Amino acid sequence: VNDSKKVFVKTFGCQMNVYDSERMLRLAESAGYLRAEDAESADLIIVNTCSVRDKPEHKAVSEIGWMHKRARAHEGVKLVLAGCVAQQLADSLLKSHPFIDLVLGTAAIGRLPGLLSRIESGERVVDCADSDADIGMPLADETTPGRSGPSAFVSIMRGCNNYCSYCIVPYVRGPEKSRAPGEILDEVRQFVDEGAREVTLLGQNVNSYGRGLEEAIDFTELLGRVHEIQGIERIRFTTSHPKDLSDRLVQAFADLPKLAGHMHLPVQSGADTVLKRMARIYTIDQYCEKAEKLRMAKPHMAISTDLIVGFCGETDREFQETMDLLDRIRYDSAFSFKYSPRPGTAAAKFDDDVPDAVKKERLAILQKRQEQITLERNLEQLGRTVSVLVEGPGRGGPDRRKGRSECHRIVHFNDGSANPGDLVAIRIDEAFQNALVGTPVKPLK
Ligand code: SF4
């Protein structure tokens, strides 16, 4: 019996990985493990890696060293390398790092309990087969209700069919596969029972949800069904490919009051020519038209994005077009990165010809301008009353609370009676770069 054994998961990367880590924790719990507070007190350490950004192998290897150090200090610790890097490097990792017990691919997570008993009996295993039919969360451990807090993530699909030229995801997460709606709704209900009030529906491209399912259903229809679930107060989703953002989905922002007024709509570049090399399949005019429709459907709609600077062949002029786009859309926030090639992608064969110093300079210019715009957008919130989902205590006194507005901004306020999961109405009095500060107006419920 493993009842005294503990598991710790270290997570890198996107919300999909956060979701997968929670899945692994719950599966390990079903195999008798308890959650450890830190790696030092764990008997099973799982590193969930990401290969989407920056030097994946290098990071994975240094992380393996980190795991190994802890494992040595604690005889009998089992080490698992999971996630996209595991999927990519598979056998070679087990050969080059003799202290790894299990290399677990992204599509093999559902088999974790069986694999754990194999490594516990001394085997070393690689499982990166793409045959995990179940992509959902295992049923919650009944002894720990409410653990997920007010916000929950639910995976609605996995993989991607788009093959944007710079992106490794279709190679490491496989082809797009939607999850049956009944399973998704059951999982949302499970999280509501555990105390969740907000759900974020996850997928690499949620807008194409439903393709290949027996039941004829699209993403907008799925949103409508989640909206009907009692106890859910707020719905978010990520990520969206602009080419698949339909008018029906835009309309949902006007029709579904629980659908939060925030859209993450990755654009990647402001130049049509670069978008073409990236195989993104939309033009900037088409993109801007969709952004405009979103803002018309829901007043004060927040729009955020992802941007890559220094993509292969990016000229000064093309970079300037990205800068122009920032002023045209006025994003509420943006994640921006320097391009670096991912082995195995189409763009890895292109000439990565923008010098690193130029990439760095462009990134700094872009981030500086976006910071200004973000602050301006935050200042536009002054005097508005926004609905805030309380996450927990804030800094600066026992009555201080912190939560997120519909548009995903952090909001601080004083109200000692507000509990995590409450929706409160806050009038915004101060705006800063990373947060807003306000005063409670009246309870929303
Ligand atoms: S849509 Fe493009 S960027 Fe997004 S996961 Fe798919 S291939 Fe990658």
Associated small molecules? iron/sulfur cluster
**Main beta-sheet strand count, sense and barrel state:** 6 strands, parallel
Q: How many individual β-strands?
A: 19
Question: What structural class results from the helix and strand content?
Answer: alpha/beta
Total number of helical segments?
12
Query: Over the alpha carbons, how many angstroms does the gyration radius reach?
Result: 22 Å
The stretches of 5 or more residues where confidence is low (pLDDT under 50) are: 140-147
Task: Summarize model confidence as the mean pLDDT.
Answer: 89
Question: Can you list the strand order of the major beta sheet?
Answer: 2-1-3-4-5-6
Distance between the termini: 46 Å
Q: How would the global form be characterised? A: globular
Approximate helicity band: 25-40%
Beta fraction = 15-25%
Structure overview:
This protein starts with 5 loop residues before the first strand and ends with a strand. Strand 10 (198-202), helix 7 and strand 11 (234-238) form a beta-alpha-beta unit. It is globular and about 60 Å long. Helix 8 runs parallel beside helix 10 (284-297) and helix 11 runs parallel beside helix 12 (356-379). With 445 residues, the chain is α/β, with parallel strands linked by helices. Strands 2-1-3-4-5-6 form a six-stranded parallel β-sheet, sandwiched between helices. The chain contains twelve helices and 19 strands. It binds iron/sulfur cluster. Iron/sulfur cluster (SF4) is lined by residues 160, 162-164, 167, 169-170, 204-205, 241.
